[in-house]
Amino acid sequence: LPPRSVSVVLLCGGSGKRMGASIPKQYLELCGRPIVAWSLRLFAAMAEVRDVVVVCEPEYRDLISKHWGEACERAAAEDPAASVPELKWAPPGAERQDSVQSGLARIDPSTKLAAVHDSARPLTAAADVRRCLSDASDCGAAVLGVPVKPTIKEVNDDGTVARTLVRARLWEVQTPQVIEPALLRRGFAFATERNLEVTDDVSVVELLGETVRITQGSYTNIKVRI
Hints:
The chain has 226 residues and is α/β, with parallel strands linked by helices. Helix content is 31%, strand content 24%. The radius of gyration is 18 Å and the shape is globular.
């Protein structure tokens, strides 16, 4: 992909799971920095990224701005000739899809791909992101994922087993999920018209009957949970 051709929608709001703390989990410290700061470091250093739209509550903007500045300084020290992405803001919505659409409205109009990422995934590797960007560039939509390891069973309402699913065909999806902006907007419009709620972003592309590619990710790309 050419430099500065990707927009990142970084989801940091609303309140999230607080893990017994007084602040949302993405602002808790991990190795001396807020969890979200590791995603800021990742995208500040990627030449493909044009802008990063942080979807968060206004009270956390100063914290994010501080760590964004540090991330950009670090990226500039590693490559003085490179420019850094632009930082933008968007308010969170009631549901995930509302927050994604809020961020999507703020991306650069000329961007080729939108990468939606959960700020609670601090261990995402740049190499994995680049493979996902390449796959999305080829077919319009891609998502990082890993094959599931446990055996998965589908269960009836009464608690009995309906069937054992074929493990070789099952993948656990992660983020980023990378989609052409026009395709993502069309998918959200389709879901909104039919009052459908989706739990991840490529689901709206699936609703349209369009292709979504799974990009092999890493098991270390975990999401911080309670």
